[in-house]
Write a structure and sequence with these properties.
Helix content is 8%, strand content 38%. By secondary structure, the protein is mainly β. The strands form 4 sheets. Strands 9, 12, 13, 14, 15, 16, 17, 18, 19 and 20 form a 10-stranded antiparallel β-sheet that branches. A 4-stranded antiparallel β-sheet has the order 4-3-6-7, with no helix packed on it. Bound molecules: zinc ion.
Length: 280
């Protein structure tokens, strides 16, 4: 990336997977060297930042890992508040900036005909679900130095988009938690590829998501692949982008075969769609 001389010590933010150019947004004279682009600064967004190497970065008071080259990421949840506070200090000076997080509108999705045990689990099933959620949380808590968080990502499989991030779900007529991933309709047995390089943090058969793989890409960024008919990787294995990790299917809570792709920044689920190439 070519950085204009006046922003050498600057902070640049742009959406991952988008052109990473300095924002045309006017910079207040008082904001010494700080430049922020609007991409990724939205509910469900993942913003890729660039600070001077050696800088320290914090979002709303929480330290954020900064790579040796100064890159870092920030994730914003579906219901993120309209303001966030970014603090940067280091060789380029210190600065705190209030970020505006764009609001988004969410769809409503109705799913009917699900087995009642999937919509209203009993006590035994709830205990299993909670134990599995702890494993998922542990996989997502990893703050490794791996550099794959900043690479352009690739589609894990291609197909009709049958469910989008953020939609309010009404299962068998009952309002439930929002859908925090992207559903790609694919016939059972379709190869499923890693959207980016990384390491396998979880490979298991889970109650809701069936055969599930979670990959860590570094700096708290993970991708989750659910409802697989087959898993071809083991926990702890290194994977490269595009490598087959399994095959899509219809295991877990589904109404038909598809790949559910989830992307998270630590515990914050972000929208996978803006991270993937636009071309169909
Ligand atoms: Zn889904």
């Amino acid at each position: 990336m070519t950085v204009p001389r006046r922003t050498l010590a600057a902070l640049l933010l742009a959406g991952a997977g988008c052109a990473r150019q300095p924002s045309a947004e006017a910079q207040p004279a008082a904001a010494r060297g700080l430049s922020i682009g609007p991409e990724g600064l939205a509910q469900g967004g993942l913003a890729l930042g660039q600070a001077a190497p050696g800088s320290r970065v914090a979002l709303d008071g929480n330290p954020v890992r900064v790579a040796p080259d100064g890159r870092f990421i920030l994730g914003f949840g579906r219901d993120a508040p309209p303001r966030a506070r970014l603090a940067v200090s280091g060789p380029g000076g210190s600065e705190t900036r209030e970020l505006s997080i764009a609001r988004r509108e969410w769809d409503v999705q109705r799913l009917n005909g699900l087995p009642s045990a999937m919509v209203s689990p009993n006590a035994e099933q709830l205990a299993r679900i909670q134990a599995e959620q702890r494993r998922i949380n542990a996989a997502r808590a990893d703050d490794s130095e791996m550099p794959f968080f900043a690479e352009p990502f690739a589609w894990p499989a291609r197909g009709r988009i049958s469910g989008v991030y953020g939609s309010q779900r009404i299962l068998n007529g009952e309002p439930r938690a929002a859908h925090l991933g992207l559903d790609i309709a694919t016939p059972t047995g379709t190869p499923c590829a890693a959207m980016g390089g990384g390491r396998v943090a979880l490979a298991a058969d889970l109650y809701f998501t069936g055969n599930t793989v979670i990959l860590q890409h570094g700096h708290g960024l993970t991708s989750l692949y659910a409802h697989l008919s087959a898993i071809d990787v083991a926990e702890g294995a290194a994977v490269r982008q595009g490598q087959r990790i399994g095959a899509t299917g219809a295991t877990g809570r589904v109404t038909g075969p598809h790949l559910h792709l989830g992307v998270s920044w630590f515990a914050v689920a972000v929208d996978p769609r803006p991270l993937l190439p636009a071309a169909a």
